[in-house]
Amino acid sequence: MKLGMIGLGRMGDGMTERLRANGHEVMTFDPAKESTAESLAELKQQLEPPRVVWMMIPAGEITEQTTLELLGLLDRDDVLVDGGNSNHRDSRRRYELAKEYGIHFVDVGVSGGVWGLRVGFALMAGGDDEPVSRLEPIFGSLAPESGWAHVGPPGAGHFVKMVHNGIEYGLMEAYAEGFELMHHSMYPLDLTQIAGIWRHGSVVRSWLLDLLYEAFREHGATLDDIAGYVEDSGEGRWTINEAIEAAVPVPVIAASLFARFSSRRDINFAAKVSAALRNQFGGHAVRAAEKRGAGPETDPR
Q1: How far, CA to CA in Å, does 130 sit from each of 76, 88, 127, 169?
Q2: CB–CB of 142/123 below 8 Å?
Q3: pLDDT value at position 225?
């Protein structure tokens, strides 16, 4: 099958390579990478109608502008796929907009990271039946066996991927807290060894644990060369917002997101407040803050 891939970053590049290895003809456009096309207009000319164009680019303004440009270029009955981590509400809106042009819009949540090239990508597709069925040869080549599904109507693909990433936050935080406790244990524990044996037969074995074991082997069990700063890409926030709207409790996912926020603070003002209050009501000692330059101590973030 022939298709166009827009975006050759960590995911898009691996997906393109996997598709080509499975016999698909993939035309590409990425202004920062060597591509078959130098513009979206040229990419269109390299494909025969009805076309399939897959966006694998950052969510937000880049996806919005690229979608609008493509809707002005593509022809009726072409299929436009958004495989990035877009908000599902944006995807539903873009589906309705594409329908006005007679263009099919399919939202596909993609998981697999840099390992997807080798082991396959999990795919969660949202959209109308006909264009999704048209994409089945692509899905079958990208995903491992039983690794993709048409999960629902427009927007559902990105909704399911959002929840997937929220769960990922919680799993990562649970591993982080458990290994933190063992790191501060009274026992001389080999965390690399423990991560290794838990991968075999343990009820907490998982691919994330496999990756943690490899990280310990690469960086050492104390991870001294890695800063304790954890970014978030937005899906955890969206998951919590949706949970609030639906009145569904998600305490683990919420706590894991707040833990990421805490990791980014050089100076924790809330902890200062707690220390000051303990001193005021109980006379508990407080530790003097380290001086940071000539000016007053402030939080740079």
Answers
A1: 14, 20, 9, 34
A2: yes
A3: 87
Provide the percentage of residues in the chain whose pLDDT is more than 70.
95
List the structure tokens of 79: 């299929």
Reduced to 3 states (helix: H, G, I; strand: E, B; else coil), residue 6 is strand
Strand partners, 28: 5
Catalytic-labelled residue, pool 25, 38, 145, 161: 161
Q: What is the mean pLDDT of residues 113-127?
A: 94
How far apart (Å, rounded) are the C-alpha atoms in residues 90 and 131? 19
CA 200 to chain centroid, in Å, comes to 27
Cβ 161 vs Cβ 111: under 8 Å: yes
Angle made by CA atoms 31, 230, 91, in degrees to the nearest 5 = 50
pLDDT in tens, 270-288: 777 888 878 888 777 888 8
Q: At what angle do helices 251-263 and 235-246 cross, to 10 degrees?
A: 140
Please, what is the average pLDDT of the chain?
A: 92
pLDDT at 231: 84
Please indicate whether residue 96 is annotated as part of the active site: no
Residue 161 appears among annotated catalytic residues? yes
